[in-house]
Amino acid sequence: MITHMSAQQNPNHNHLLDALPRSIFERISPHLELISMPLGTVLYESGSQLQHVYFPTAAIVSLQYVMENGASAEIAGVGNEGILGVPIFMGGNNMPNRATVQTAGSIYRLKARQMMEEFNRAGGRRSGALQNLMLRYTQALLTQMSQTAACNRHHSVEQQLCRWLLSTLDRLPSNEMSMTQELIASMLGVRREGITETAGNLQRAGLIRYRRGHITVLDRPQLEACACECYGVVKKEFNRLLSHGTNKTNFPLHHRIQPSLPHQEFRANHP
Amino acid sequence: MITHMSAQQNPNHNHLLDALPRSIFERISPHLELISMPLGTVLYESGSQLQHVYFPTAAIVSLQYVMENGASAEIAGVGNEGILGVPIFMGGNNMPNRATVQTAGSIYRLKARQMMEEFNRAGGRRSGALQNLMLRYTQALLTQMSQTAACNRHHSVEQQLCRWLLSTLDRLPSNEMSMTQELIASMLGVRREGITETAGNLQRAGLIRYRRGHITVLDRPQLEACACECYGVVKKEFNRLLSHGTNKTNFPLHHRIQPSLPHQEFRANHP
DNA sequence: GAGAGTATGTTCGTTAGCACACATAAAGCG
DNA sequence: CGCTTTATGTGTGCTAACGAACATACTCTC
Q1: Of A65, A76, A229, the CB nearest to B67
Q2: Which phi-psi region, left, alpha or beta, contains residue B93 (left: φ > 0; alpha: ψ -120 to 50)?
Q3: At the fourth CATH level, which superfamily is domain B1-129?
């Protein structure tokens, strides 16, 4: 169990938990278990019965879809800004996704029963604060997924790599991440060689530096300029939907320069 | 307003509305407005304030993301199995998507206020039936979006075209749809020429037949064989999450035989 | 500090899908 | 009915990303 601390320095915190009203937090905190999650842990598999929701603190978890032929693609990432196990309170219990730990760290775990009890605790005609927060997070997740869909359709590997690095960076305490190119490739659903080449370009341009299994972001603004719009869109939605009360979920969006090459249009839909 | 009819023959029905308990349905039905939606109507734009939720009956609406450069991609489709305006009850009010009518037809409209009133109407510790249903639908939507993301990453235009035809077919009363290749291309976010070529192949193989603006599905099982797994995964999730009580949302995967209904012609050019 | 294990670099041929530029033909409309 | 609009058909490069098969080099462990 943890106390409701304001300490942003505390590494063991999750923005959703932090955003809960004190009264609610105090009710559930005795049931929170802090668990250490090594890289590669599978929190749940496609179709498995979910028993818990998880609130990552330092850990980052990747939601991926694994295809019949074994290929995979990341659908969304979840770090200290979010929660895993959304289908528990949405009513479907599970989803055809796998949740894999992409960055080791600790996670708070809460039993499905306790979660549901609080989720359904309503004050008369109005829904409770936890329900409210969870639904808003779920909407942000919807945006993240839909943006991933559009991004996978239209953006280059380079743009996507930049986007991915930035969103991972936002969930980390420093500007260095422990991450192999192979792992990134499997997240983005592209070839490892493609990442090697692209990362090489970024390094030569001075945006990042890497050595065997570690990547350091050197020039964040430039990285944002190279990323596709998707990064900013998702970030803005998370801020809009989840910054309230404590400002902990409110990340500033760095200056986004837009050199974007004038693409020709795809013939928009119904003019 | 409509009455709570069991008539599956009635063209003006929406599976979510049909699945509501009679008592709830009777409360909201006086507020339902049936509106005719021509092709190309934009129900809402990215970032606009949503005022209503919409329950399609014969109409099919496409949720798309429109990129900065004008390119677009369909994120999810919504027909008589669903609802539009999910962000209203999720708490975010809007989303960075556009909702465009892809197949003309009628839609029930309900004011946001009425929707919220019923959504938050809870019986003590338990959430109401409407909330329950809406959250389950939203989870199905999550699955649809995540599947679109994975599909955009890994599957060929042919597989995607088959998937798209099938899921559109599921929402139509007959096996013919009024649809130009240009429109399909913009939905899938690919070039029109790519659709022309692929559709030509499918026609030559006898799976479909088409003429200027109309496509008829001739061999559904074959089409399913050519589609990627995504079609089945999404369909199964919708069935799992939304077939309850009345069996109206429960489509069998194969052989969906339906008496041809007279469906209105509409102008192929956009308003 | 040497070797094993694994991460990264590089190459070459292949392909799906793109961009552009048209030709043709079917509806719709006056 | 002929004319215009719009949907579809085709062709010719072109490029990003793929697949496979390697060569190199870092690090961790023993």
Answers
A1: A229
A2: left
A3: Jelly Rolls (2.60.120.10)
